[in-house]
């Protein structure tokens, strides 16, 4: 019961936590390019990207639960686009509020969503072929990296595991064991709250992957799908739940601490599962860190500085 309540409290807070507490290495940003891709039945998806000739990898950066339709949370709150100055092209698909970047079973009926989320289709069948067309399949393998925070961390692992065009997957503060006690119920609460907070009405998780007994929950659980990650480079990162070098207010602390503590527990369990299953995995578990953008930015730049994005 304690684990169930902890999951409820933590994930119900997800939609109200994306605390801006800092950013990564700063430098002049490369020229940004913006275009739209077909949304597979959704409205066209905006894409913003930063590229430079001669770079050795292209990474797709996924947002969190409270993604907005103007620009990515990564651009709102960090400078990861600066990586394009020194080796790594950055691609940010925009939007995906409460979507888990997945193909849903149906439009959300709680808020009369006018279309079905088709994010897996948009990324796999529209975005990656467009990146290929633009010559961004760079590096020795000619394959892509994908990364995400919180909700996007889960999604990066699932999309990467199932797409042969992706060979690097990186989850930051993700929830990587959806079959753990209380997680499916907690995600239900988080989706309800995310839609209400955004002013579009509550999202129904039954419209996403069906009831909690549906096999689609297993198909979107990185812990269950880990066997498909063999032969790829996997990385997980999470803070400890203790405040670190970035200042935050009391609300950010009481919301961000339990979220990050839960993510840390799941990320460590996922790391063990990966090692047992022969998956090449590295980790970044700093002694401090909340569920907040400054720490996620630091995680990305540490990965880059350690050479993780290289083939």
UniProtKB/TrEMBL annotation:
This is Esterase family protein. It comes from Williamsia herbipolensis. The keyword Signal applies. Coiled coil: none annotated. The keyword Signal applies. SUPFAM superfamilies: alpha/beta-Hydrolases. Keywords: Signal. The lineage of its organism: Bacteria, Bacillati, Actinomycetota, Actinomycetes, Mycobacteriales. InterPro entries: AB_hydrolase_fold, Esterase-like. Residues 1-28 form the signal peptide.
